[in-house]
Each structure stands twice: as structure tokens, then as C-alpha cells.
Design brief:
301 residues; alpha+beta; D-amino Acid Aminotransferase, Chain A, domain 1; Dna Ligase, domain 1; five-stranded antiparallel sheet
Length: 301
């Protein structure tokens, strides 16, 4: 098979590992820079080009699209879907998971455990909003943030009001969530492929840091998750429509709660912590499921 990896940097660990895993299994693994791709959107014969070359013969794609280029990246994925190419994560599912508010609403509708979350447009509603989520301390999140950027812990009501005022003044969209104190600055990253959690790790924030992202100096180790955590992770990925996802859970007093469902989860932390060949499992999933035109939305999303 010819499996294209949509990535802006072929030297990134995740991209390299996917190439290695695919080549080991006898596949051709071109890395396609989606930021450099341009599209001919024409009836009955859509195409994608890079530097004058028509990209053809691709059987499947693995989108590795950064949050900063979600709009253009998902447009490229959609174009491949229109060409009948199988995408391991479809454009509509990536878009759904990237919109933090939409994701929380969809998960809530399906009864998935979540931190109590509030969202408002006017700073006049701050008092009510803080009461919704149980009062300070609260976590305030920019809807466009990623890797822990734009996530603030407001430890007092006054601090929360100041942050909300500042974000509102910048015309930024944000949501307010209850702070799960009992998690102690740690979370669980469950790596879902298909309908299974194939690997999971406990991420612990560095001293004095409530965010556990490895990019922010957190540490990771192998963890055994409970059947309830496993089920929550798989269901969350399914609600988003993602075949490959990183589902971040917190252990709260009322069971596992989902913090985020990531459509382009990194491989380095999870493979290092668990010593599992996660890249190989993704390629194996594509081998079993990729068929010409099998993409459900066919670019309609």
C-alpha cells in the first residue's frame, strides 16, 4: 500500500516512527506537507498538487495536523476523501475534536464523565458561571489552545474574575471548568486505535504545575487502567468519530472524567513510557480497514 502521512516535518518522532512501522511492513510511506499542498477542486476529478506534482496513487492517509493549521489541514484531508482515499481520521472528526466546546457538548450528550463546564458570552454572567462549576479554584481554557497553552488555574474568585475579564477583553472564546483537585496534577493518556485502548500512561505535572503535558516538563510512566477508564476512553473516541485518538482522563471522586480527545496524539511519550509499538498498531489498523472509497463522509463533512 501507499500510505501518505500528512505532516509538516518528516523529522518529528511521530512521523518518523509511522514511516518506519509502515516500511517494515512493506508499504510505501510518503510524507506529504499539507501546508504546501494545493488543491484543484473540480467536479468528478478533484486533485492535490505539491510543487507542480500531482499527488496520485495514495491508498490511505494518516493526518498529523497541528492545531494552528486545522482549517487548511482538514481541507486537504477532505480533498483526499473526495478522491476516495481512506483517512484513518476523517476531516469531520478532526474538526469536531478540535472545537473544545463542541467536543464537550457531544461527550455530554452521550453521558461521558466530564468536569462541570460553563460557557458564556458576556462578562456580566461571570458570577453565575463560577457558581455553576462550584466556585474557585476553577480552570479557564481558551477554546483554541493546545498542549496546555491557554489553560489557567484561577485559585480564587478574584483571580478567576480577572482572567475572565482579560480573555473577554481580547474577544477570546473560553470555557470555565471545575478544578479536579484530587487528580493532584496528574492525568491519564489513553491511546485508542479502533475500538481498543492499545496503551496508557500516567502523566504527572512537574512540582507546582497543575498541567501534566510532557511538553511542559511533565513525566510519564506506564499505568494499569480500570475497565471503566478503558470504556470511557473508547466511547469518547467513538463519539468524536476518531479511529486513532489520545483521550486524556482525570481520576475524580466521581469516576473518570474526560479532559480532551486529541486527534493527532504524539507517539514519543506513549511509546517511551509503555515500550509498545503504537505506530505499528496504527499501520495494522489501516491494513485491515483501508479500502478505496471507504471513507464514510467522502468529503461531505
Amino acid at each position: 500500500m501507499k500510505i501518505g502521512i500528512l505532516s509538516t516535518n518528516k523529522n518529528l518522532y511521530s512521523t518518523r516512527r509511522l514511516v518506519e512501522a509502515g516500511v517494515e511492513r512493506g508499504h510505501e510511506m510518503p510524507v506529504i506537507n499539507h501546508k504546501r499542498a494545493y488543491m484543484n477542486i473540480t467536479s468528478h476529478n478533484p486533485s492535490i498538487h505539491i510543487k507542480g506534482e500531482n499527488i496520485t496513487g495514495i491508498d490511505a492517509i494518516i493526518p498529523r495536523i497541528g492545531a494552528s493549521v486545522s482549517f487548511y489541514g482538514t481541507a486537504v484531508v477532505r480533498q483526499f476523501e473526495m478522491m476516495g482515499v481512506y483517512s484513518v481520521n476523517e476531516s469531520v472528526a478532526i474538526t469536531r475534536s478540535r472545537d473544545k466546546l463542541r467536543a464537550v457538548q457531544l461527550l455530554s450528550r452521550k453521558g461521558i464523565g466530564l468536569p462541570v463546564t460553563g460557557f458564556a458570552n458576556s462578562p456580566d454572567d461571570t458570577e453565575d458561571l463560577l457558581q455553576f462549576v462550584g466556585g474557585a479554584p476553577v480552570v479557564i481554557k481558551l477554546l483554541e489552545g493546545t498542549q496546555g497553552v491557554g489553560v489557567v488555574l484561577a485559585e480564587t474568585k478574584k483571580a478567576a474574575e480577572s482572567v475572565i475579564e482579560a480573555f473577554s477583553g481580547l474577544k477570546a472564546n473560553f470555557m470555565v471548568q471545575e478544578f479536579i483537585k484530587e487528580a493532584g496534577g496528574s492525568d491519564i493518556r489513553c491511546f485508542v486505535v479502533g475500538d481498543k485502548v492499545v496503551a496508557s500512561m500516567l502523566r504527572q505535572g512537574k512540582e507546582g504545575e497543575f498541567r501534566s503535558n510532557l511538553h511542559r516538563g511533565g513525566s510519564a510512566k506506564l499505568i494499569k487502567i480500570t475497565p471503566e477508564e478503558r470504556s470511557t476512553a473508547v466511547r469518547s473516541a467513538k463519539v468524536m468519530g476518531l479511529n486513532v485518538a489520545g483521550v486524556d482522563l482525570l481520576r475524580s471522586n466521581h469516576g473518570p472524567v474526560v479532559m480532551e480527545v486529541n486527534s493527532s496524539p504524539g507517539l514519543e511519550g506513549i511509546e517511551t513510557a509503555t515500550k509498545k509499538d503504537v505506530a505499528g498498531m496504527i499501520i495494522e489498523f489501516i491494513e485491515k480497514n483501508a479500502k478505496q472509497g471507504k471513507t464514510r463522509t467522502r468529503g461531505k463533512g
